[in-house]
Design a protein that fits this description.
The complex is a heterodimer of chains A (about 130) and B (about 500). Chain A is mainly alpha-helical. Chain A contains 6 helices and no strands. By secondary structure, chain B is an all-alpha fold. The chains are: A mainly alpha (about 130), B mainly alpha (about 500).
Chain lengths: ~130, ~500
């Protein structure tokens, strides 16, 4: 039991991301409302973004903005600064996520104009007629 | 135009032209056709020249903006990616010529919007083929997906709903892939594929690496619609505008299979994939065999030509995944050759479907009665495509299927061999049913006066050329395998 608790406490960021991801996954698969599905997709993507960003964190690390002349003279102590690469990657991932959300919202608008509802069950009922 | 940057131009020309199509297309629609066809012709020629260079002097890698890998993004040009570049640009060129007519009919006044997305999609596919960076691959994967969502949603009726389902499934796939990249990054600290491959054998942490591999593989399987994960594909591809399915159907699944090969052999090693976990390897071949059988059976139940073709695409995905995972050189050669052949067969059949739809407005089997007398040239080309899909020699489909079956026998995976033969038989039933309806049944409504009503020349020309290409590539598959595919197969086979 104690081992399990240390596992949770020492890797709390990964547990948080897994829980968030499962919430998002459930919403994408389980919910019948199309907007809720879309929000689930956003939660899913945000969970992955959190995973990446938290991976770059170092205990007591400073922001990775360095004085060029200092670095040239003394070099970089990698333990003193946070790893900036995951953050930069996630900027791109956020852009991707925003554009997918935009496209999906535009498509939802068309679906709403066509069927007058965003509930999957009602749309399928209308299609069945 | 410096020759060493040729591959960058192949990709950049459609990407830049996309913006001109959007701007000038607003002024006048007459700009669209020359810009689209011109840019794709330039890409095709450049890709062919590049292919010649790679055959003559071997592959090379290129660093964008002189940032040396592993820090910068690396573009890798080898035999396989050069072959895929030629395939993508040529298929896109043929598809665009036919799409010009069908878009004019289905989406009047929105040609410039359609072809903006079309060209960005082509550029994204080319980028996917070239990139040597795992994260860059994710970004390009999403560029192609987003443009595809837009193209599909331009269709009529239920198309937006199908597109939304595709968004949900496609995002799950892409996010899984990203998670896999994340795990690999945590373990190795790098994103360059060659660099990851160099570091992976030196670290321990088998569980994390296996999780990463599983996530990446499942993510790509969702994108390529391997059987149990195929739910989004039939609706999305059959409800899309005809012009969109012309480009999406032949290329998207095939490029995803290329990506699977890239991830498997550029990041992980043959030793890791096939020797350390033999039960995983044979399990995946079983899944592929199941995919082939189930998708073929589902295709039998369809009553619409385009929907039937989408299920055949899903079965073909099973062919290629199985071929790659057979873990021998023959199967791998068959899979790579089948990527080329299947893209061309699918293109030929969808071009024929587009031509029929352009004239008759329907692809239901009932409305195909007497079609052979109304559109003889279109249907002749369709028959060649159908024979290739069944695997009748000397069409291209026969030779890749032959390699796949030989690979299956060599590996002792009889279930895969049986599935391939079953699927060929089902394809024969499917296509002979259409030939029967089209050739022997009389059109019920206009009995007696079936008039010749061929599709316009712009739709016929690419169709006939692709049908001829199927036979030419079939007859030339010996040299093709010897000069290109033998060298494209990952080292070690």
């Amino acid at each position: 039991m104690e081992e399990f608790l240390t596992l949770i406490v020492s890797k709390v960021n990964y547990w948080a991301y897994v829980i968030l991801m499962m919430i998002g996954f459930y919403a994408m698969i389980g919910k019948r409302n199309l907007v809720k599905k879309l929000i689930g997709m956003n939660i899913f993507q945000t969970a992955i973004i959190l995973m990446f960003v938290s991976a770059g964190v170092k205990h007591g690390g400073k922001i990775p903005i360095l004085n060029k002349y200092e670095v040239l003279k003394h070099g970089v102590d990698a333990t003193q600064v946070v790893n900036p690469l995951p953050h930069v990657l996630m900027l791109t991932a956020i852009v991707v996520s925003v554009s997918i959300t935009g496209v999906a919202l535009a498509i939802l608008l068309r679906i709403y104009r066509e069927y007058g509802t965003l509930e999957e069950d009602e749309i399928l009922e209308k299609l069945g007629k | 135009m410096s020759a060493s940057n040729l591959h960058v131009y192949v990709m950049a020309v459609p990407l830049l032209t996309a913006f001109f199509v959007n701007l000038l297309g607003r002024v006048s629609n007459s700009w669209v056709a020359p810009l689209v066809c011109g840019s794709l012709s330039i890409s095709s020629v450049a890709a062919l020249v590049l292919m010649g260079r790679v055959i003559a002097s071997g592959g090379f890698s290129y660093t964008v903006g002189n940032w040396t890998p592993p820090f910068g993004i690396e573009l890798v040009v080898d035999h396989l990616s050069a072959l895929m570049l030629v395939l993508i640009s040529v298929v896109a060129l043929f598809a665009s010529i036919s799409a010009l007519k069908s878009v004019e009919q289905e989406l009047p006044g929105r040609e410039h919007l359609f072809f903006t997305l079309f060209l960005i999609l082509v550029a994204g596919l080319m980028g996917l083929v070239l990139t040597g960076d795992a994260f860059n691959l994710y970004v390009l994967l999403e560029i192609t997906s987003i443009t595809t969502y837009g193209l599909i949603a331009m269709g009529k009726g239920r198309a937006p709903l199908a597109s939304f389902n595709y968004i949900i499934m496609g995002s799950i796939g892409a996010c899984f892939y990203l998670l896999g990249v994340g795990y690999l990054y945590l373990m190795t600290g790098t994103l360059n594929m060659a660099d990851i491959a160099r570091i992976l054998p030196t670290i321990d942490g088998a569980a994390a690496v296996a999780t990463a591999f599983a996530f990446m593989l499942v993510g790509l399987w969702v994108k390529m619609a391997l059987f149990p994960l195929h739910g989004w594909l039939p609706n999305a591809y059959s409800l899309a505008p005809t012009g969109a399915s012309l480009i999406v159907a032949p290329l998207m699944t095939k490029v995803s299979i290329y990506l699977m090969i890239r991830v498997m052999f550029s990041i992980f090693s043959i030793d890791y994939l096939f020797l350390q976990h033999p039960q995983v390897q044979s399990g995946i071949v079983w899944v592929a065999a199941l995919a082939i059988v189930s998708a073929s059976a589902l295709a039998l139940a369809q009553k619409d030509l385009k929907r039937m073709l989408t299920y055949i695409i899903i079965a073909e995905v099973g062919y290629m995944v199985g071929g790659v995972w057979l873990a021998n050189g023959t199967g791998m050669t068959g899979a790579v050759l089948h990527i080329v052949n299947d893209a061309l067969m699918t293109l030929c059949l969808f071009l024929a479907a587009a031509a029929i739809y352009y004239r008759s407005g329907s692809l239901e089997f009932n409305s195909l009665q007497g079609i052979y007398r109304k559109m003889p040239i279109t249907m002749a080309a369709f028959t060649v495509g159908a024979f290739a899909m069944i695997g009748v020699p000397p069409t291209a489909g026969f030779f890749s299927k032959w390699y796949l079956i030989l690979g299956g026998i060599e590996a002792g995976h009889w279930e895969y061999v049986v599935a391939l033969l079953f699927s060929s038989l089902v394809n024969a039933v499917l296509f002979f049913r259409i030939i029967e309806i089209g050739y022997f049944y009389k059109d019920g409504e206009h009995h007696g006066h079936e008039t010749l009503n061929e599709a316009p020349l712009l739709m016929q020309a690419p169709l006939v050329i692709s049908a001829v290409a199927l036979i030419v590539i079939g007859l030339g598959s010996g040299p093709l395998v010897e000069t290109i595919i033998k060298l494209a197969v990952p080292v070690g086979f």
